[in-house]
Amino acid sequence: MKKIIIAVVITVVLVGATYKLAVDTEAGQNFLLDRALSARMVQPPVSEFLGLEVMVCGSSSPLPDPSRAQACIMVRAGNRIFLVDAGSGSAEVLRLEGVPMQLIGTILLTHFHSDHISAIADVNLGSWVAGRPARLQIVGPEGVNSVVAGFNLAYGLDRSYRTAHHGEDFLPSVLGALQAQTITPGVIYAEDELTITAFEVDHAPISPAVGYRFDYMGRSVVVTGDTIVTKGIEVAAKDADLLLTDALSHDLINAMSEGAAAGGMDRGATILKDIMDYHADTKNIGKMAAAAGVGQVAFYHLVPPVQNVVMENIFMRGVPSDTILTHDGMRFLLPAGSDVLEIVEKN
Q1: 206 closest CA partner among 115, 82, 286
Q2: What is the pLDDT at residue 301?
Q3: Domain spanning 51-344: CATH superfamily
Q4: What share of the chain is helix, strand, coil (3-state, %, to 5)?
Q5: Which of 24, 65, 85, 115 is an active site residue?
């Protein structure tokens, strides 16, 4: 036993000495840095999934949550990547999750609230630097031209600095400017087996506001953006494999509003009360989805974002048990020619 104790002590001493040598000396620090960079700074191959790949790159609303970015859904069909909205923090989620930024060619905007557009510039820069071969398309209803013109103006000097620093060959200035496309409800894209359909949603008094449906190789995904539950969504989501929908818990928002009022935060209480009439009530979504024949319902744009188990349980009151409460980085894989839907947790 004595020999075992001595061996353990010697091992502990050696490990401690090795650790101190590694972190406290220049040679040790350089060695650890080289090993870490060798593991991380490797360009992963661009793999192509046969079917639809969906990732939540922002599951929050304007109410703050340190663990969630604002509204953003990535939809990938082959080597085409589309984003539905790009709220604050979503560009960081995309990069941290290893999304090949150079394949992001289009951002589809549902409407122009700040929490749906504030990361457009970050996505534009990230995809431009990554080697995007064409201008980033910003697609949306009437008003998108003004949004794009504003971003192009605000970031004009930034673009010029980066091209001047890295060179026109490396960062072509023409690819740094956003390009707007105004759409109306109906089919807005149909190419190589992928069809994207815009449909009207009710986010009054915000108008116009739209959602998007993706159909590819026999699979379908619907992203609502911000809306109340309507017959129009039921029609748009008919027999969809996956419905990603705006979701608001009246129980939580009522409690928060009453708490704010009791604490003397009258403006906050008023705002919380106001937002309840233009988001989808969690307790109304299941019936609509069942009538539409939706395969899987998933909540995003959570109002309010849930930050603990108690909030999660309250949020999911009265909701069908198979409904998914998403988080940033969650992926849904829908293989072509199948009815399988695989859920992949955050990397």
Answers
A1: 115
A2: 97
A3: Ribonuclease Z/Hydroxyacylglutathione hydrolase-like (3.60.15.10)
A4: 40, 25, 35
A5: 115
